[in-house]
Amino acid sequence: MNKEKIKQIIIAIIIPLAVGGLSAFLTKDGTKAFETINKPTLSPPSIVFPIVWTILYILMGLASYFIYRNDDYNLRFDRKNALLIYGIQLIFNFFWSIIFFNLKTYYFAFIWLLIMWALIFILLMLSKKLDKKAFYLLIPYFIWTTFAGYLNISIALLN
After folding, report:
1. Does 37 map to a domain?
2. In whole angstroms, what separates CA 118 from the centre of its chain?
3. Considering only Cβ atoms within 10 Å of each terminal Cβ, which end of the chain, N or C, has fewer?
4. Is residue 10 a part of any domain in this protein?
5. Residue 94 and residue 117: Cα distance in Å, rounded?
6. pTM of the complete model
């Protein structure tokens, strides 16, 4: 693997990690308050969330790299759309934590999360055409976001 590819992979991984890191930094006080609210039965311990999200951000970054590297001329429109959807869902991901933890508007956060979930689904479908590795790397993110939706609506109903 040449230096340019390594640089592209590193940049692709740093982007979602930076987005997630900044969001976590901005919501650190809100996540402390999270300990005091009513949570559903399947809610994991708080330590699980930063570990899972770090792994997911790395997988997302790798997936974006594989999508970016697709140079099939016939798929250029899908590639462009996939990268656009990737960026938009990353923005939704960033703001969800702020809406949920800082603003504590749990129902609005759930609606926001549903939009993010739909964007991830679209990204999954586009990535399936562009690069199977990207598709498989995004599946855990889709599953975790589905689980986050369960947690979000359950917390909204319980609090």
Report:
1. no
2. 12
3. N
4. yes
5. 13
6. 0.95
